[in-house]
Amino acid sequence: MRLLVDEDLASDELMARLRTAGHHVETTEKGVLDAAVWRYAQETELTVLTGNAGDFMAEAQRTPDHHGLLVVYGERDPVKRMRAADIAGAVEHVREVCGEVLRGARLALDEWRHPSDA
């Protein structure tokens, strides 16, 4: 899967896990406006992976033929918080079920935890 990991989730551990799983992974510099991140992802055919649901959901609604949006909602709730391993496992589960291309999809990764992680 071709992913653009937003700065809010771009830990070294997550980036390494995603790359080890065979994903093409890019990230953004801190402070880049969400609209610019979204525009770059669409121009380069990358699926956005973020914990910033609000702004990116609005962008996805404006461009329904986008290249995919994966959102982590529970990162602030200690009970629901997804660690890097959880996020990487959920991305892998999405790839197993949906394939490499998520055109137009908006998925909450909290609901896609890999069955082996449950």
Mean pLDDT: 90
The share of residues in extended strands comes to: 15-25%
- Unreliable segments (pLDDT under 50, ≥5 consecutive)? none
Helix-strand makeup class: alpha/beta
Report the major sheet: 5 strands, parallel
The structural domain count equals 1
How far is the N terminus from the C terminus?
23 Å
* Strand line-up of the largest beta sheet: 2-1-3-4-5
Q: How many DSSP helices? A: 4
Q: Kindly provide the name of the CATH class.
A: Alpha Beta
Q: Kindly state the percentage of residues in helix.
A: 25-40%
Shape: globular
SSE arrangement, N to C: EHEHEHEHE
Quick one: how many beta strands?
5
Just name the CATH architecture: 3-Layer(aba) Sandwich
Q: Which fold does the CATH topology refer to? A: Rossmann fold
Rounded radius of gyration (Å): 13 Å
Write a structural description.
With 118 residues, this protein is an alpha/beta fold. The chain has one domain: Rossmann fold. It is built from 4 helices and 5 strands. Strands 2-1-3-4-5 form a 5-stranded parallel sheet, sandwiched between helices. Strand 3, helix 3 and strand 4 form a beta-alpha-beta unit. Helix 1 runs parallel beside helix 4. The two termini are 23 Å apart. The relative contact order is 0.19. The model has no long low-confidence stretch (mean pLDDT 90).
Short description:
The chain contains 4 helices and 5 strands, in the order βαβαβαβαβ. The chain is an alpha/beta fold and 118 residues long.
SSE order and pairing:
Elements: E1 2-5, H1 12-20, E2 24-27, H2 34-43, E3 47-50, H3 53-62, E4 69-71, H4 84-98, E5 106-108
Parallel strand pairs: 1-2, 1-3, 3-4, 4-5
Helix pairs in contact: 1-4
